[in-house]
Amino acid sequence: MKEITxxxxxxxxxxxxxxESIDRLELYGSDSEYNFSVNKIPTENPYTIDGQQARLxxxxxxxNVSTDYLSGKKVFAEHELLKxxxxxxxxxxxxxxxxxxxxxxxxxVAQGSFYVPMAxxxxxxxASYSRGMKAxxxxxVITAVCLQAGVQRCPVxxxxxxxxxxxxxxxxxxxxxxxxxxxxxTSRYANLSDLGIDINGNELVIRFEYMTGDASGQNMVTxxxxxxxxxxxxxxPVKPTHWVVESNTSGDKKGTSLALTRVRGKKVTAEIxxxxxxxxxxxxxxxxxMAKTTASFINGCVxxxxxxxxxxxxxxxxxxxxxxxxxxxxxxxxxSAIIRMEVNENGDLYCSITMPNIIVGTVGxxxxxxxxxxxxxxxxxxxxxxxxxxxxxxxxxxxxxEISILAALxxxxxASAHKNLGRK
Length: 424
Fold this sequence. Notes:
Helix content: 25-40%
Radius of gyration: 23 Å
Largest sheet: 10 strands, mixed
Mean pLDDT: 92
Number of helices: 14
C-alpha cells in the first residue's frame, strides 16, 4: 500500500526545476561521467542489404542491444503478448524503421548520445532530423528539462438546478482525501495530485489530475476516475441527473486551446545555441534568415488559427511513437509546441522548444511487443523509471527537426530535398 499524505491533492501546480536537476545539468562537460563518445551511423548504401547490415552491426556493437526482431532475424510468434493491445489479430503492418543520431542531450534524466529509431514511409524525414542533430552536435549540446507531469480525466455531472449543483460541489470538496484513498486502492501506480472544478449553469466538470509513474496512463486514470465517480454517486447527498466519466475536456487525443496552458503527460522544454559558422556550414543558411523565417511562421500560425507554433513536431513524434509502442493517436495532443529562434548578442542562433503534452510511457501499452521493446532499448528507455528520460528525448528530437526544416525553408532547399529524397 502506498503512503497517503494529507496534502497529496493540494499540490500547487507550476513549472519547476529542482536543485538536484540543476546540479546535474551543470555537471555536463565537467566530469568524465558526463562526457560521451559520438560515433557516426554508417550511411553508405542506403537502399541495399549491405547498408542495412552495416547499420545493424553498428547498433549491436555500440549500444549492446538486440535487434533480432527489427532486422527480421526473428519473427513474432508470442501471441499472448497481444492481450490488451489488439483484437481480431491477423498480422503485422510493416513500417520501415531507420535510425538517426547521435542525438546528444544534457537533460535532467536523459544525458548522453542517443541513436533514435524512427518508423516512417516519408522520404527525407530521417535525413532532415540527422542534419538537425549534426548542427546541434557541432554547436554543443541540447539541454532538456522536464518541468511538470500529470494526466487528467474530466467527468461531467448534470443537475436540475444550480442549488443542487452547489450542494454537490461542497460535498466533493469535503471528500478529496477519500478520492486519494480510492485511487491508491485502485492502482499500484496512480496518485491523485490535483482536482479542479468548472461550473457552467447546471453542469459541472471535475478535473481529476494524476501522476501515473512510467505508464502513459490514459487507461489508468479512466479506471481510477470511474471508481471515484461510483463512490460519489453512491454517497453524495444530491444525485446528478446524468453523468459521464469523460466530458471531452481533458484533451485526450485532440489538440485544444488548453494544450499550452497546462500539462498533459509531461511538460518538457529544450534549448541549444547554434554557432553561426555551423548554421552556415551544416544548415547552409544564416542565423538571421532562420530567425526571420521563424517569425514569419509564427505569424502564419496566428493567422491560420493554429493552436501552437511548431512547424512539424508531429513528424518526429509519429515516427518515434510507432517505433516505440506508444499510442500514436496521442500525437494530436503531444505535438503542441512553442518554438523560438533568436539571434543572440554573439551573432549565434538561440533555439528552443517547449512541449507540455508529451504523453508517453515506457511500461504497459505496446512497449513490451518485440520490435517496440527493441526500439525503446536502443535509447535506454525500456521499463520502469524511464518515462521522463523518454519524454526529454522526444522533445530534443522535435527541436532538431524544427531546426532542420526552418533552415531548409530559409535557404530555399525545402522543395529540392523532397525532390531528391522523397520521390520514387
